[in-house]
Design goal:
By secondary structure, the chain is of the alpha+beta class. Helix content is 15%, strand content 35%. The chain has three helices and twelve strands. The strands form five sheets. The chain has a three-stranded parallel β-sheet, with helices on one face. The protein has a three-stranded antiparallel β-sheet with strand order 6-7-10, with no helix packed on it. Strand 4, helix 3 and strand 5 form a beta-alpha-beta unit. The chain starts with 6 loop residues before the first helix and ends in a 39-residue tail after the last strand.
Length: 240
Amino acid sequence: MPAKKTLFEKVWEAHLVVEPTGRSPLVYIDLHLVHEVTSPQAFDGLRAAGRKVRQPQRTVATVDHNIPTEPRGTPITDPIAARQIQALQSNCKEFGVRLNFVPTVRPDGMIHMKVEPEVSALDFTNALQIQGFLIPALATNRVMSEMDLRDGQSFAVAGLIDNRVIEQFEKIPFIGDIPVLGKLFQSRNLNKSKNELLVVVTPRIVQPIAAGQTVPLPTFPQAFLPSKGAPPAEAQPQSK
């Protein structure tokens, strides 16, 4: 019986490309997220080494630390925060990284948002082979939408459908190549999948809290799925 593995071990083994002796392991990254506070050091390192962002389509930048919410709708007055945002915008333009989410709080309390959901899947037809390892490409479909919401309101975006047909062919070497008889040593597997992405956006404006006050956590007004072992809900009598 194989030994049990932790979640970290499973993710690590699924993304490990190669682990050379005496060198750092090479790990495959599906999606890289950067923000305005620590990304300038990373972009400076690329400039110093004379490198580019290897796959800009898999790198997403967002401004999430320096957006003012109190008072609402005011411009960024902190000079350090303004320089960080300007540096992120400049670096993204230089290195071809998309900046796809910058919320804006208007003076009337409305929150203007740009949402860009995407559906991604591994594409083995355009895979690359590096040091004997097969690195699949990433096929992505996305849609962009803009909306104005109040604090606590929700907006749903759907319609991104991914239809895939994957055919796998296996055979025993040499024996599987024999005419007629080789068919007994071959196998063909056909998998069909259909996925649809549904994104529900509910913005919240964070207000300052007093020292020692408990931070409220997100709550659902109604349970999404019944818990295991819970008795079924009784039907409520309807008044006539």
